[in-house]
Amino acid sequence: MELIGYVLLGIAAGILSGLFGIGGGIVLVPSLIVLFGLDILDANAVSLAAMLLPVGVLGVWAYYKAGLINVRESLWIALGLFLGSFVGGEFAVNISESLLAKLYAAILLYIALSYFDIFSYFKKKKEPKPIASIETKKPVWAFILVGVGAGIFAGLFGKGGGIVIVPLLIGIFHYDPKAAAATSLAALQLPVGLPSVLIYANEGHLNILFAGLIALGILGGAFLGSKLGVRLPSALFKKVYALFLMAVAVFMVYKYI
């Protein structure tokens, strides 16, 4: 029954991955800790390994058919993810788990509040672009830097990096929320977390069986999530995502602080 539980967890993570373009790790790590008793580093390792294969490819295809993915920019982000993943993994295995959890909760709360426009009066509002295929007029290195930052975050917290990519694409590049989620999910289909996975495995934190079962579930769940994401109005999509982030942040505060 426990093995079936990992598959079901993968399905749930896949739905969130397809819906929000986050890779699924944001629900995997807390669930692996609470439901399956893994410590945070073991959970990080399993989460990252489960997302190495292109398990969200069906979701990417659904978004691509809807015209929501900028393939070129997602590839530059993927390159940055790969580079940043090594740095994040090295940091994670060399700092305390309590500090890791506190940093994670603080970042989630900030992102969630920004999605509710709490900080909007500090900056000039700009209209989002309707789809990712419209030129953002940003240099290549800007997308690579987004990927590097997301890769460091992913390596540190066992996430796919989409939780960083999506807000940056919306806030800095002025993507429509659904286009940001779609482009992020596409960037995460390459094995960008491999450096971090190797670091965690070298430290004895990786369970291949658990990762494989979760990956199987993500494959189907991501397709369902992307179908739902395409149909949600952008404004509602943004608010649902913010509530989701706040719920995870509150859990991390409760669990580790």
Could you outline the blueprint of secondary structure elements for this entry?
Blueprint: H1 2-20, H2 25-34, H3 40-50, H4 57-65, H5 71-92, H6 97-115, H7 140-157, H8 162-171, H9 177-187, H10 194-202, H11 208-231, H12 234-256
Can you tell me about this structure?
With 257 residues, the chain is mainly α. 72% of the residues lie in helices and 0% in strands. The protein has one domain. The chain contains 12 helices and no strands. Helix 3 (40-50) packs across helix 10. It starts with a helix and ends with a helix.
Question: What brief labels describe this structure?
Answer:
12 helices, globular, 0% strand, 72% helix, 257 residues, single chain, mainly alpha
Shape: globular
- CA-to-CA gap between the ends? 31 Å
Q: Quickly give the structural class.
A: mainly alpha
Low-confidence stretches: 131-136
Proportion of helical residues: over 70%
Q: Average pLDDT across residues?
A: 79
Provide a count of the helices: 12
Largest sheet: none
Strand content: under 5%
The count of strands amounts to: 0
Task: Please indicate the count of domains.
Answer: 1
Give the H and E element order.
Answer: HHHHHHHHHHHH
Task: Determine Rg (CA atoms, Å).
Answer: 17 Å
